[in-house]
Known about the structure:
Blueprint: H1 14-19, E1 27-28, E2 31-32, E3 34-35, H2 46-59, H3 69-89, E4 97-100, H4 103-116, E5 125-129, H5 138-142, E6 150-154, H6 164-170, E7 175-181, H7 193-202, E8 207-210, H8 222-225, E9 229-233, E10 244-248, H9 250-255, E11 266-269, E12 274-276, H10 290-304, H11 308-326, E13 332-335, E14 344-349, H12 354-362, E15 366-367, E16 369-371, H13 376-381, E17 387-391, H14 398-415
Parallel strand pairs: 3-15, 5-6, 5-7, 7-8, 8-9
Antiparallel strand pairs: 1-2, 4-10, 9-10, 11-12, 13-14, 14-17, 16-17
Amino acid sequence: MINTIQDVKKKFDVEDVRKDFPILQRAVNGSELVYLDNAATTQKPQAVIDALTHYYTYDNANIHRGLYFLSEFATEQYENARLKVKEFINAISASEIIFVRGTTEAINLVATSLWREKYFNEGDEVIISNMEHHANIVPWQIAGGRKKINLKVIPITDDGELDLNAYESLINEKTKLVSIVHISNSLGTINPIKKIVDIAHSKKIPVLIDGAQAIPHFKVDVQELDADFYAFSGHKIFGPTGIGVLYGKTELLEMMPPYQGGGDMIRTVTFEKTTFDDLPRKFEAGTPNIAGAIGLGAAIDYLNQFDRNDLCNYENELLNYATARLLEIDGLKIIGNAKEKASVISFVIDGIHPYDIGTIIDTDGIAIRTGHHCTQPIMNRYNLPATARASLSFYNTKSEIDKLIVGLQKVKKMFA
Ligand code: PLP
């Protein structure tokens, strides 16, 4: 078989890949940076940085509004980025791709718009889980103002897996939506998302998937998942901050009223009445993050050079190595031991506050996250104020994990 250019994938080599990320060459506190906070945000390859710089240096203009070259060229690049996203997640149409600020805004958009559409009545229920990020809790609590949507919460096992029997028993005639995280940012659990969607669909309930942590780790196909909505953030897949995506099925997005009003989302405006533009512009009021969308397109191009399975397999190798090495440390306990796990490892060490762990290892240039990770309910579930979390990407190495272990041993000695 003859490969087309797109089919020929670059061989994954971690040392080569590291050269693509200039920040990984910098020092912090006199040591080489060891960046292990990829669940919070990922670093940017030079190709993404160049796309942003190039746009602002040569191509900057507002989109959709000008009949001159630069405006049309900027519009073309912005819409081209939408096409890249469409291909990336295998949506049916580019008009199902709404550019937003990130996962948080995507979920707020759905919650607010569905409420306005009177899709929900007071007392209707949205099923979420115990492992949701605050971005998939708070929007549902505030969408209806004083009228409440009730949240029903799927419990989790001690290992950090969803209790699917409990999920099924939560569904009733008041259930209007299931809104669920694909991969937990604090436990690393990969949820059986297709099964969750199928169960909801068998009762004709739509499903929103918070894909913020899934999209950086493996190929997501929204048609295969039959997702009704899929939300993710550009900055977690090596793209810029301030840009993200809400994917929605056309029939749902068509039915939903605009989230914000203003320029670019209208067809006609009088003081009495406004008519709205078609999808996706109905949901993109005002000047969008043009450079951000172009940068996200560049991040997708960057990822598309590789076979995503190679990156995923390498991350799994790192996960297994890091898990084994962390467990060598006396008194260290991993929080979240699901069978299906991404390369996110939360842990606690007996008698040492996670903040102390994070602060001390930072003196050696090692960056991990400590705190509740915007998932306070899961901390309550485990009766913990906080955890330390190392989250790994395909540019991390085993030797960086070794440095983390040396750092943690140093912390242990200081507290002995
Ligand atoms: N959902 C999950 C699972 C996350 O991990 C995050 C961020 O950490 C979010 C939602 C919110 O993403 P953003 O802050 O980019 O909107």
